[in-house]
Amino acid sequence: MAGASHYILDLPKFDTAPRLLIVVAPYYKEIADNLVAGAKAEAEKAGAYVDIVEVPGALEIPSAIAMAARMADYDGFVALGCVIRGETTHYDTVCNDSSRGLTLLGLEGTCIGNGILTVENYEQAAVRADPAEQNKGGGAAAAALHLISLSRKWARRTKGIGFKPAESFRIAGETDGSESA
């Protein structure tokens, strides 16, 4: 089934090449390879440096990104993998928990593009992963690059400019100590 067309933002331009870590779960190897190919091509268009690591499954992707965010020097991350619905509720757990983990990292300020496919069957995954079709790997890389661009923009604005707290302040209802009781 064809989807509606949608607007795609132009890739951001960078003064300094961003460093991206692609974290991929190659459980479905052909799908993962296509996702990585799309992500790498998109990152290269923006002049980004790319490293790739593999993890056993989608549930390990947020953990690997969290470790790399703490311990390595990357500007952003691309999460790639595929979860295909099976006969049990394990699908729901993997989809929900991997997505929740990535969202929580993002809310803490980690620049992440989520390219973990959650599909009903292999055919849906193949179309979404193919760089010549829906290119969800490329879309995830683009999302990470846009977040990196925003974080760099806002980091420049806060260095010496913007809100500065007063030297001293009082909380409503407090006194400064000069009044007698």
From TrEMBL:
InterPro entries the record matches: LS, LS/RS, LS/RS_sf
EC number: 2.5.1.78
Record keywords, A-Z: Riboflavin biosynthesis, Transferase
Pathway where it operates: Cofactor biosynthesis; riboflavin biosynthesis; riboflavin from 2-hydroxy-3-oxobutyl phosphate and 5-amino-6-(D-ribitylamino)uracil: step 1/2
Pfam families given in the database record: DMRL_synthase
Function: Catalyzes the formation of 6,7-dimethyl-8-ribityllumazine by condensation of 5-amino-6-(D-ribitylamino)uracil with 3,4-dihydroxy-2-butanone 4-phosphate. This is the penultimate step in the biosynthesis of riboflavin.
Family of the protein in this entry: Belongs to the DMRL synthase family.
Name by which UniProt lists this protein: 6,7-dimethyl-8-ribityllumazine synthase
Gene label: ribH
